[in-house]
Write a structure and sequence with these properties.
Structural class: mainly alpha
Helix content: 55-70%
Order of helices and strands: HHHHHHHHEEHHH
Strand content: under 5%
Distance between the termini: 27 Å
């Protein structure tokens, strides 16, 4: 059945190879299950609901890619737009996460229309190569900066805007958190250089284990790092499902709405067409 469905021999592969590749792919991208709830919860969304939505969306997207397109691509929410969603739209601009979800929904409809025509690729081809590279670098730097902030390594400073956190002051909370951040990045970097499969996931788990050890020894005194399974509620996804239609438009500025939609659409066009180029 698998041979008839996926044409494994025709594509020079077999079930064992695909299973190993699938497990490896999951290990390299499973970090999104931890990061997406952490980032989007800053907008006021329920972290458990985001976790379930992330997992469900990844499952549906990957199955659609396998059964409809017959490509061995795993799909999952990416970093960058979620940070823009939480820290820009809901943070500095002050809009609700319901409003941000509506912008994502409208952008998705526009993106579908563009994908069904040649407009999407025409837009991409019209953009200069230097700008394309600049956008990719800019998104990467933005995500890296958000990561350093969430890790506690980079903090606000009234004089220089940003500064490195003080490891000595409040070492048992902010100091040790920043140190764990450095340790985690170092572990991932070493494993990546050694070409160890699943280096990102291994680094996340290793840092988490080290953090729990620090908490057990009293070195770390911040929020508990121990898993609390009683807080895991699959039904919590209902708290966010369909909330994009529950928006108070009385304080919405139409120009902001258009700009936000364009920002989401712009990044999506680059991401998907970049994937198309890599596939070819």
């Amino acid at each position: 059945m698998l041979e008839n469905l996926f044409k494994l021999k025709e594509n020079g592969t077999n079930v064992r190879t695909e299973v190993i590749a699938g497990v490896t792919t999951f290990m390299t991208m499973a970090y999104i299950l931890a990061l997406n709830p952490s980032i989007l919860s800053a907008s006021g969304m329920d972290a458990n609901a985001v976790l379930m939505a992330t997992a469900i969306a990844s499952f549906i997207g990957t199955m659609a890619m396998a059964l409809l397109a017959n490509y061995p691509f795993a799909l999952a929410p990416g970093l960058g737009l979620n940070a823009y969603f939480a820290y820009t739209v809901c943070g500095s601009m002050g809009y609700s996460w319901q409003f941000a979800l509506l912008a994502v929904f409208v952008e998705g409809l526009i993106f579908i229309v563009l994908s069904l025509t040649n407009v999407r690729e025409a837009i991409f081809n019209a953009i200069p190569a230097q700008l394309k590279k600049g956008v990719s670098v800019g998104i990467g730097l933005f995500v890296a900066f958000i990561g350093l902030q969430n890790g506690g390594l980079v903090v606000n400073d009234d004089s220089t805007l940003v500064a490195i956190t003080s490891f000595v002051s409040d070492f048992n909370t902010t100091g040790i958190s920043a140190l764990l951040c450095i340790i985690g990045v170092f572990i991932i970097a070493v494993l990546s250089v050694k070409k160890i499969k699943g280096s990102i996931l291994i680094g996340i788990i290793a840092t988490w284990v080290i953090g729990m050890i620090c908490q057990a020894l009293g070195i770390y005194q911040g929020s508990s790092l121990y898993p609390v399974w009683s807080n895991f509620n699959p039904g919590s996804v209902g708290q966010t499902f369909g909330q994009c239609f529950n928006v108070d438009f009385s304080s919405v500025r139409i120009l902001d709405f258009i700009v936000i939609i364009f920002a989401f659409l712009f990044v999506d066009v680059f991401d998907t067409l970049g994937a198309d180029r890599r596939r070819e």
